[in-house]
Amino acid sequence: MPKSKRNKIVSLSKTKKKGKEHKESIVNSIREAAEDYNSIYVFSFENMRNLKFKEFREKLKPTSRFFLGSNKVMQVALGRSVSDEIRPGLYKVSKLLRGDAGLFLTNMPRDEVESCFNKFEENDFARTGTIATEKVEKDKLLLFHITLFMILDY
After folding, report:
1. Is there a contact between 35 and 77 (Cβ–Cβ < 8 Å)?
2. Residue pLDDT, tens place only, 73-85
3. Which Pfam families does the annotation name (predicted)?
């Protein structure tokens, strides 16, 4: 038979898809961690920088574990319904995973967890599309010492 000349979808990306085995390993690691730790918290974040979060994660590493990634995979790991859940009531936790969210599993008491998360807030440069929280105004008198060439460069 002759080869088909229809348009075929060709992937231009050289990265390989993460298969079912990768997702299953994540599900298994979340389930193992859920058995090891007493408490599970869902946290949300905005404009999180990896370096800042890495420092926070390293600080809490001896007593806890963080999971970030696909919300659907984490929901499957915890259980989406009463029949799927691995521990009683965990299907309610999986319903809270929406948007930019992650799981925090720990043996620490609740007061200590809340204080750690409340203390961890660092200011950083805004990303594109971020709404300014402060208004900065410059006086015209401050611009007198700047030469014309410096203004044209900007």
Report:
1. no
2. 999 999 989 998 8
3. Ribosomal_L10 (PF00466)
